[in-house]
Amino acid sequence: QYGISLNKYLFEPLDETTYYLIRRDILRTLKKYFSLVRVITLKVFSEAKDEEQGKIIISLTLQLLDESLDIFDAEVTIA
Questions:
Q1: Residue of 29, 40, 22, 42 whose CA lies nearest to 1
Q2: Is the whole model's pTM more than 0.90, yes or no?
Q3: Does 29 have pLDDT greater than 80?
Q4: What's the pLDDT tens digit per position in 54-72?
Q5: Residues 6+ apart with CB under 8 A from 73
Q6: Which of 9, 27, 62, 76 could form a disulfide with 37 if both were Cys (CB 3.0 to 4.6 A apart)?
Q7: How far apart are CA 67 and CA 7, in angstroms?
Q8: In angstroms, rounded to a whole number, what is the distance separating the alpha carbons of residues 50 and 57?
């Protein structure tokens, strides 16, 4: 049950609706499994040239809500 199943978006169009649904799934998963983080930014998009190639970029910045308050950045390209 852990994680995000992005394969359901495999043949979906690269448009704002798909980006919104992916973003929503990521936020739900973080809320369920990582309650000790605060999402600072979450962007789901593709660059114009990547839309033709089917690439999605997910950029995420999180802050830990423990005594350290560390901030982490992650960016993933899914092709």
A1: 29
A2: no
A3: yes
A4: 789 999 999 999 989 999 9
A5: 59, 60, 61
A6: 62
A7: 36
A8: 9
* CB distance 47 to 58 below 8 Å: no
**Side chain identity, residue 26:** I
Q: Can you give the pLDDT at residue 75? A: 93
Own/partner pairs for 57-62, CB < 8 Å, 24+ apart?
58/22, 58/26, 60/26, 62/30, 62/34, 62/37, 62/38
User: What does the DSSP 8-state code read for residue 8?
Assistant: G
Across the chain, the runs of DSSP E, i.e. the strands, are 37-45, 56-64, 71-78
Q: What is the pLDDT of residue 51?
A: 61
- pLDDT score of 41 more than 70: yes
Could you tell me if 70 and 63 are in contact, meaning their C-beta atoms sit under 8 angstroms apart? yes
